[in-house]
Amino acid sequence: MRLPEQIKRLGLVVGVLVAAVLVGRFAVIPRSLVATELHQATTVAREIAKPMKFAGTAACQDCHDDVSIKKAKGYHKNLSCEGCHGPAAKHAEDPSSGKPAAPRDRKSCPVCHIYDASRPTGFPQINPTSHNPLKPCITCHNPHDPVPPKVPQECSACHGQIERTKAVSSHALLACTTCHKVPPLHKTAPRSALPSKPETREFCGACHGKGAPQKDAPKVDVSAHGGRFQCWQCHYPHLPEGRG
Ligand code: HEC
Ligand code: HEC
Ligand code: HEC
Ligand code: HEC
Ligand code: HEC
Ligand code: HEC
Ligand code: HEC
Ligand code: HEC
Fold it and tell me: b/e per residue, 7-38, with b = 16+ CB within 10 A?
């Protein structure tokens, strides 16, 4: 039986490919790339010949034991010194040859701490554009012992503008909590627990209504004064203006 022409041509193409692979494998490619032992030996030799750049965290301890001890107790205990300071073998051998770089800017810490859904649950993450922008991270966090600083608890720490406004108003002597019930959680995670705000005209009327016990508070007729509007639609509660 005669083979069809196209099969013969296909056979020729396959034959040429096989021949090319065999020639390449045994004649062109150097033996060091195909013989496993030889390959390993030349790679090891090549890597050993490279200059050492990293000294390893243990080496830093000899001269910087204050930093090493501090770091060993903190959240960053498992980080390598040179992961932040860069290769420092030269410096470790001869400190007068130069100081390693220290990442004092805002760019290096987010490499590990920027929000990223693929990081493990609970890994401390922040959004660098909203997390205390403008200041370098190290103004608030010690890089060798990064305990998150305590959040301030007073209302004025976060509502400074309102506090300063109220301080010069006729409501200066009223505590914020006279008018706002503040859940404790609001002071540490503000957005997850919002304080209450006055909701009715009667709330203000408790001090300003005719016959209310608060003597120094000027009185109005709550049922008529200001019509059907809420009191704070006309009086800013943190700086209320009256007749004066
Ligand atoms: C043989 C002692 C020695 C070893 C080992 C050593 N250092 Fe230093 N290091 C010094 C001295 C000395 C200084 C200079 C201190 C100074 O000028 O205040 C210094 C300064 C530094 C600084 C300060 C840079 C700055 O901007 O102030 C850093 C960071 C530093 N070393 C990191 C390392 C790291 C990381 C290692 C380990 C890979 C290491 N050092 C190993 C002696 C050593
Ligand atoms: C998370 C990154 C990070 C790691 C890990 C780290 N450092 Fe630092 N290091 C910094 C930064 C940032 C500064 C600059 C601090 C400053 O200027 O207030 C610094 C400053 C220094 C300084 C100079 C000022 C000082 O505090 O004495 C030395 C020395 C130093 N590091 C050594 C080390 C050694 C040794 C290790 C490992 C035990 C290490 N660092 C690990 C980020 C790091
Ligand atoms: C190489 C990655 C890496 C870099 C760079 C790094 N960190 Fe960390 N950081 C970690 C790890 C890992 C932890 C410990 C996480 C844990 O315990 O679950 C940590 C913990 C922290 C914590 C503790 C948060 C908490 O409440 O648990 C703070 C704050 C922190 N880092 C700030 C910084 C700052 C500031 C810098 C830059 C100077 C920095 N980190 C650079 C890996 C890194
Ligand atoms: C003005 C001070 C300040 C600056 C600047 C600052 N932080 Fe913070 N950081 C805090 C405070 C306060 C907390 C604790 C309350 C909170 O979670 O907001 C905190 C918490 C953290 C945490 C822990 C978050 C968690 O979920 O446990 C990490 C990580 C962190 N900061 C990293 C950084 C990095 C990275 C930078 C720089 C890009 C930075 N911080 C700049 C004050 C600061
Ligand atoms: C750690 C910062 C922080 C502290 C401390 C804090 N707040 Fe707030 N507060 C916030 C933030 C953030 C919001 C939400 C603002 C927004 O969503 O625009 C808020 C919102 C409010 C609101 C508005 C609620 C609403 O429904 O609009 C009131 C009222 C309030 N805080 C009162 C207080 C009082 C009173 C105190 C002191 C006892 C206090 N806060 C302490 C950060 C704080
Ligand atoms: C006399 C009662 C009163 C006192 C005292 C008071 N507030 Fe208010 N506050 C209100 C009322 C009423 C509103 C609602 C205003 C509105 O909805 O327009 C309000 C609204 C707010 C809001 C929402 C945002 C805004 O600016 O309207 C914040 C935040 C707030 N108060 C914080 C404070 C803080 C902090 C203090 C103490 C420094 C304080 N308040 C004291 C009555 C009071
Ligand atoms: C429609 C706007 C409006 C509303 C709503 C309103 N007020 Fe007034 N309020 C005024 C004006 C204007 C003045 C100053 C002139 C006056 O005394 O009529 C005033 C004055 C006051 C004074 C000062 C009286 C004095 O003798 O000095 C008090 C106290 C007062 N209001 C409390 C309230 C209270 C409480 C509410 C809610 C029950 C309220 N206001 C609602 C517009 C309003
Ligand atoms: C706990 C009592 C109390 C509550 C509640 C209260 N106030 Fe007052 N308010 C006062 C006192 C006291 C003064 C007068 C202080 C002074 O003049 O020395 C005052 C003054 C005023 C004035 C007059 C300011 C002036 O310069 O004449 C207005 C308007 C006012 N409050 C509005 C309100 C509004 C609106 C609310 C509700 C959101 C409210 N107040 C809730 C106690 C209170």
Answer: eeeeeeeeeeeeeeeeeeeeeeeeeeeeeeee
Q: Please tell me if the CB atom of residue 234 comes closer than 6 angstroms to any atom of ligand 7.
A: yes
pLDDT at 31 over 90: no
Residue 221 Cβ inside 6 Å of ligand 7? The answer reads no
| This prediction's pTM | 0.61
Range of 24-28, 54-58, 130-134 with top mean pLDDT: 54-58
Cβ–Cβ < 8 Å for 67, 84: no
Q: Which amino acid is at 2?
A: R
Domain extents in the chain? 155-233
The bound ligand whose nearest atom lies closest to the alpha carbon of 241 is: 8
Q: How far, in Å, from the CA of 92 to the mean position of ligand 1? A: 7
